[in-house]
Specification:
- By secondary structure, the chain is mainly α.
- It has a domain at 62-205: Tetracycline Repressor, domain 2.
- The chain is 62% helix and 0% strand.
- The protein is built from nine helices and no strands.
- α1 crosses α2 (38-45) and α5 runs antiparallel to α8 (171-183).
- It is globular and about 55 Å long.
- Mean pLDDT is 86; it is low at 208-212.
């Protein structure tokens, strides 16, 4: 499918349908995973199945567009934080991007390898390096850290989000605090609580809400 940004502008109703489809798909995949059918997405969006297929040849194209938009949003977040004062941008970036990933579960794994998004990927890596360098210059994080460590930190958050999908817990917050504590040159307390035994058991058992 051609890059949506390069196509002629859609009619207002067509654009509205496209946004409904993408919003519904993000919600459905976050709740129930990528195994969910496009029929479920169409029902959630309130459009016919043919309307979905007029924009996306198959589910993979739909997932790729969601991932591309998510990556673009993550790059925009990095660009906002790169000028934060006193090297604090790295922490703001990691918190905000992790929150973005938490609200878009289900297709996050595609973000790191989006077809046709090489420019966005390159820009993301460049900004991660700039954010890290600024934090290091102000002594906020360990000097031996690399930009790859920043990317791996987000991969780790992604893993927690995948495991806890469908659960009413926010274990990723505690995990990110642990990661940030490890980045800092001195230890700090963690304000978010760890999971309870009951929450941990529910996560391990993989309990999921039913597909609607």
């Amino acid at each position: 499918m051609a890059d949506l940004a390069r196509e002629r502008p859609l009619r207002r109703d067509a654009q509205a349908n496209l946004e409904r489809i993408l919003e519904a798909a993000a919600a459905v995949f976050a709740e129930h995973g990528l195994q969910t059918s496009i029929e479920v997405v169409a029902r959630r969006a309130g459009v016919g199945l043919g309307t979905v297929y007029r924009r996306f040849a198959d589910k993979q194209e739909l997932v790729d567009e969601l991932a591309r938009r998510l990556l673009a949003d993550a790059v925009a977040i990095a660009e906002r934080h790169v000028d934060d004062p006193d090297g604090t941008g790295l922490f703001g970036y990691l918190w905000e991007v992790s929150g973005l990933l938490a609200t878009n579960r289900g297709f996050v794994s595609r973000v790191w390898n989006v077809p046709g998004a090489a420019v966005l990927v390159t820009r993301s890596r460049q900004l991660q390096g700039e954010l890290l360098a600024s934090a290091q210059a102000y002594g906020l994080v360990r000097g031996e850290l690399t930009a790859q460590d920043v990317a791996v930190a987000l991969w780790a958050v992604q893993g927690v989000l995948d495991v806890t999908r469908g659960q009413p817990v926010e274990a990723w917050r505690r995990h990110l605090e642990v990661l940030l504590a490890g980045l800092r040159p001195e230890p700090r307390s963690l304000p978010h609580p760890s999971l309870t035994d009951e929450e941990m058991t529910a996560v391990i058992r993989g309990q999921r809400p039913p597909v609607l």
